[in-house]
Amino acid sequence: MIQEKAHRKEILLRLGSLLDDQDILVAALAGTTNECFHNLHRPANLYLVGMGMVTPVSFGLAKALPKRRIIALDTDGSLLLSPSILPVVAVYKPQNLCIVVFDNEQLYGSRGGPASQTAYGSDLAAIAKGAGIRTTTTVNNSEAFAAEFSKFISERGPALIVCKIESTYGRGAGPNFNGQENKFRLVRLIEETEAIKILDGSK
Predict the structure, then answer these.
(1) ∠ CA(132), CA(99), CA(88), 5° rounding?
(2) Predicted structure pTM score
(3) Which residues pair with 102 in a beta bridge?
(4) In this structure, what are the phi and psi dihedrals at residue 28, rounded to the nearest 5 degrees?
(5) Strands (E), 6-64
(6) How many whole angstroms separate alpha carbon 68 and alpha carbon 64?
(7) What is the chain's percent helix, strand, coil content, to nearest 5?
(8) Are the C-beta atoms of 107 and 113 separated by less than 8 Å?
(9) pLDDT (tens digit, 9 = 90+) per residue, 154-200?
């Protein structure tokens, strides 16, 4: 049983060293968005994605943008809310999708709250493997994460990396723009870099 736990900031900083400008990050609400904004802010980040929606949104982006790597920054509580996305990922096998799950073993870890099922033995990596995703693992430090993410870069996905983390996180103001503005910023970036038109500009 894993005893040691990482800090989300450590994982994010290691992740940042492995990304390129084309990679898109999709970040869950609260602590994940806040720490990503403070430690790994970049134009191709989508913040404040609601519980249960992080991996589904990332899957959709991965299918729509197969030349870009899409990294879901999900959480244990969020993924447990919609585990039905895992068999979908397994069936369609988007090679450009990596699901990073920050597991602090609390349903609402950013604000305190009850323990999640992972605190009692539920294994998200095993659940994903059972759903048909072949590349799954659980890590508890930034070095192991970097090794697994590098494997995703070289071998392609879909992959799921569960990161066991402490329940504390760096406080501070989140993004200085709202979710809708963030969404349109990302859409404009995709339009410019993919030479495609998503919005007609009439609104």
Answers:
(1) 40
(2) 0.91
(3) 75, 163
(4) -70, 170
(5) 24-28, 45-49
(6) 9
(7) 40, 20, 40
(8) yes
(9) 999 999 999 999 987 666 667 877 878 898 999 999 999 988 888 66
